[in-house]
Amino acid sequence: MSLKETVHFKWYKHLLILLFLFACFQGSAWITAAEFSQVFQNSSQMTAFLSRFIHPDFSYLPKLVEPMIKTLQMSLLGTVIGLVFAIPISFLATTVVTENRWLSTIFRFLLGLVRTIPTLLLAALFVAIFGIGEATGVLTIAVFTFGMVSQLMFQAIETIDFGPIEAAAAVGANKMQIAVWSIAPQVLSQFASYAFYAFEVNVRASTVLGYVGAGGIGVILNSSLALLNYERVSIIILTILITVALVDKLSEQVRRSLL
């Protein structure tokens, strides 16, 4: 095939891909009965919302300090609880420690099951079971952290150097001693990095848990939206954005120093 024919072939190939994607888009819009024109027909409501949203109610800011602190406390406590359970389970989920493929497979299946449940759905289930409050938010964050960090941790364990493990086994060390003295030192910095990353993710997640009654600043955001108080919604979102940005920056600096 000549160079000219090759160029034409690639051009037709790209055109067919674009046509296929457009057909998928049109088919999805037809199946879901989505009418995008309705979005622009309600322009008056959009204008009314934005005209109030761009004027944050700064006088309401002092009342957001305590809910924001509660949100951070929920995130921290839930992260710590999740890590306490994630560390031992991450060791049991890898054959490097257990040397038992069936046992590790069972734990990996359970971790996969936990990770498939969305955070908001998990929070809604816990609210139905335990009731409304910050404790429900902490429990939701703990379970989410457990599933996420356990996965990262056992994958880190499987990439370690096996030399120290073989040396410890040669002198008669048991599995617990091998895990503590041969494996843990190699992954400790990664574990700490994952812990701060989990806290960073949980701060963002905890701000919306209030929508289902799990406490924190999300409760105020939900009620302000329900009352159409868009000036307060604006200052709440601005507070959340600044707090999340600060936590992300701090977490990034700590994780860089650990790796």
Automatic annotation (TrEMBL):
Keyword flag Transmembrane helix: yes
Membrane topology per record: Multi-pass membrane protein
InterPro entries documented for this protein: MetI-like, MetI-like_sf, PhnE/PtxC
CDD domains: TM_PBP2 (cd06261)
Cross-referenced Pfam families: BPD_transp_1
Keywords, alphabetical: Cell membrane, Membrane, Transmembrane, Transmembrane helix, Transport
Segments traversing the membrane: 76-97, 109-132, 138-157, 178-197, 203-221, 233-251
Superkingdom per UniProt: Bacteria
Gene3D superfamilies: MetI-like
All residue ranges annotated as the ABC transmembrane type-1 domain in the record: 68-251
PROSITE patterns reported in the protein's UniProt record: ABC_TM1, PROKAR_LIPOPROTEIN
Record localization: Cell membrane
Similarity comment: Belongs to the binding-protein-dependent transport system permease family.
Protein name listed in UniProt: Phosphonate ABC transporter, permease protein PhnE
